[in-house]
Amino acid sequence: MKFEIKNIYTREIALSGEADSIAGLFRLLVEPGMDLSGIEIPGVALVRSNLSKIDLSGSNLAGCNLVKADLSEADLAGCNLTRANLVGANLAGADLTAAKLTGADLAMATLNGACLKSADLYWSNLVGASLVSVDASQSNLSKSNLTLASLRDADLFWADLGGANLTLCVLTNAVLSMANLSKTTMTGAVLHKAVLAGADLRNADLTNSDFTDADLNEANMLGAILNGANMEGANLLKLKR
Question: What is the mean pLDDT of the chain?
Answer without folding.
Answer: 91
